[in-house]
Design a protein that fits this description.
19 strands; 10-stranded mixed β-sheet
Length: 581
């Protein structure tokens, strides 16, 4: 019979009937009531012979070699899990999982089964396909299986809050193998993820797939109600919400279709001012010859000079009213709208007319005192495109807006900022005495605007054709898909945390989840799987596959259907026909 020593930190409570209970005391300060309180963790009682008789929890704790008071008060779920594991071990099933080990060492009782099919898919994606699991184990050796379990939960239970993790963990075989209370998850996010570790992870991931890839870069805004986050500022909200926000800038590989790096920015930082910071931020990644694809929100002479300075390739969309491109635009308008000659400029695969123009860009370098240190010319290609159907859509949209503003003006209704700009551009006062209309449309201004509809401009220092430039630029929509996945599948429409550190670390966990989701999205698009199912449905189809432990040393799987087998094959993953290695 094992004799248990009374731990030195323990205290004894004597009940009115004389029973003696042993407990650990956890004092804390209640801010709302401004006085101290106590939480007790009962660990046993004192017998009539003055012997310490531990309860099931303390026996399980001692069995792990821990004889003293836990530093943090364990939750009820954590206590119950420790008790159940101790009973399994006592019954003769061995386990060496006393530290943070990979999924295959998870302690599972005999005659049990756990859902595993979707997690099996995610583990293979995180293995040889993306290298995420190996890179996390290098950068976060103490907690990487916890991070993976949280990531897998966020992917498979995309619309469930984190406090439901424990319920999910009970019937799924996942990397950590243990439940995690919402309190433990919060502590993990706030206290155990450092900026140095994150940067090392970005560097390892970048080294796997940057070569010969093209990086698309964009920003999105995320609204927040928190007044405690320094980065939350009012700015131009891309979801048209009138709330303070943070901005998220992200680099994504066009070929791999996987995110490479992200950075959280204050909400009042504009797109055009982020490139300089981005170039500085990613220097630690040791990426050479970066190829940027940027929308017109990033166009500025300063940004183009910066990319020339750092010898980066780029494709940037330009506004149509930039003076140095105006002559090219006028020339293209004549060529593309002349039915006698426009055939030679037509690209049937992209359904556009296109023409390339060459200019010498005036490249300027300045020192920290704003003095010019280098003034020379660099080659720049200007590609002008015309899409007839896009032109019709733009024309129709403008006419609808003009009609709406005309009605508001003639009926003395208030205008918003956009409508005020339309009023200034396309309306003049009506001085006619025999009309009840207060304004008339400026047809010359409308006609001038019509000339530009359907035209767009891409500039680049690539030495490639107009067809290739537009093809690369159109692939940039993958970054919009990533932002959609962040906000919709990973529930990032509003931030709920209340510190910059917690928010940035939560974003990092979502960023990891986004790598897996992006690869699944890529495979589903390539194989046209969205035609018959959503991503949730695909994961649900695989999630019902269970791993069974009728024999703890030789686990098996429930029946795998032909449909499930084909889904694995689309990902070039062998179905789980054998016990995991």
């Amino acid at each position: 019979m094992t004799i248990f020593q009374l731990p030195p930190e323990a205290k004894i409570h004597v009940s009115p009937r004389g029973a003696k209970y042993v407990y650990f005391d956890y004092p804390y300060w209640d801010k709302s009531k401004s006085y101290g309180k106590h939480q007790w963790l009962y660990i046993g009682k004192i017998s009539s012979n003055d012997e310490f008789i531990p309860n099931d929890y303390y026996q399980a704790l001692v069995a792990q070699g821990k004889h003293g008071k836990p530093n943090i008060l364990p939750t009820k779920d954590e206590r119950e899990l420790l008790i159940s594991q101790h009973k399994v071990i006592s019954s003769g099933i061995s386990s060496n999982q006393t530290t943070d080990k990979p999924i295959n060492n998870t302690l599972v009782a005999a005659d049990s089964s756990l859902y595993y099919g979707a997690i099996y898919l995610l583990e293979r994606i995180g293995g040889s396909i993306t290298g995420v699991i190996e890179d996390l184990s290098i950068c976060f050796p103490e907690i990487y299986t916890k991070l993976l379990s949280i990531v897998f939960y966020l992917i498979l239970e995309s619309h469930s809050p984190l406090y439901r993790f424990n319920r999910w963990a009970l019937d799924h075989k996942h990397p950590y193998g243990y439940p995690l209370s919402s309190q433990r998850i919060s502590e993990l996010i706030i206290d155990n993820i450092s900026e140095r570790q994150k940067q090392e992870f970005y560097k390892l991931q970048a080294s796997r797939r940057i070569e010969n890839d093209i990086l698309a870069f964009d920003t999105t805004s995320v609204s927040s109600n928190s007044q405690l986050i320094k980065s939350v500022k009012y700015g131009r909200n891309k979801d048209d919400e009138h709330l303070p926000q943070i901005n998220i800038a992200m680099l994504i590989g066009e070929n791999s279709r996987l995110p490479v790096f992200y950075r959280m920015l204050p909400g009042n930082i504009s797109d055009v001012s982020t490139i300089e910071k981005l170039i500085k931020d990613i220097e630690f990644l040791n990426i050479k010859d970066i190829k940027f694809v940027l929308d017109r929100g990033f166009y500025s002479s300063k940004n183009i000079n910066l990319m020339y300075k750092h010898r980066h390739k780029f494709i940037i969309s330009s506004r149509r009213n930039i003076s140095i491109f105006k002559d090219f635009l006028l020339d293209a308008q004549k060529l593309f709208k002349d039915d006698k000659i426009n055939y030679e400029f037509y690209d049937e695969k992209l359904n556009v007319y296109s023409k390339e123009y060459k200019i010498e860009w005036k490249y300027i370098e300045k020192n920290k005192y704003n003095q010019i240190t280098n003034d020379e010319h660099r080659d720049l290609s200007v590609h002008i495109y015309y899409n007839e159907s896009r032109g019709k859509d733009e024309k129709q949209k403008l006419y609808i807006e003009i009609k709406e503003v005309e009605y508001l003006l003639n009926n003395n209704q208030p205008l918003n900022e956009k409508q005020k700009n339309i009023s200034k551009k396309y309306f003049i006062s009506n001085n006619s005495l025999d009309s009840n209309k207060k304004v008339v449309i400026n047809l010359d201004a409308v006609s001038e605007k019509n000339k530009d509809f359907g035209f767009f401009i891409l500039i680049t220092n690539y030495n490639i054709s107009s067809h290739e430039v537009l093809s690369i630029y159109r692939n940039k929509d993958i970054i919009e898909k990533c932002f959609d996945n962040l906000k919709d599948r990973l529930e990032l429409k509003r931030t709920e945390v209340h510190s910059d550190r917690a928010l940035d670390n939560k974003l990092f966990i979502l960023f990891i989840a986004l790598i897996f989701i992006s690869h699944i999205d890529k495979v589903m698009k390539i194989n046209n799987l969205y035609k018959n199912r959503t991503m949730d449905q695909l994961l649900d189809d695989l999630d019902i596959i269970k791993i069974c432990y009728t024999d703890s040393n030789n686990p098996s799987y429930t029946e795998i259907t032909e449909k499930q087998r084909k889904l694995y094959e689309f990902f070039n993953i062998q179905p789980p026909a054998q016990p995991p290695a």
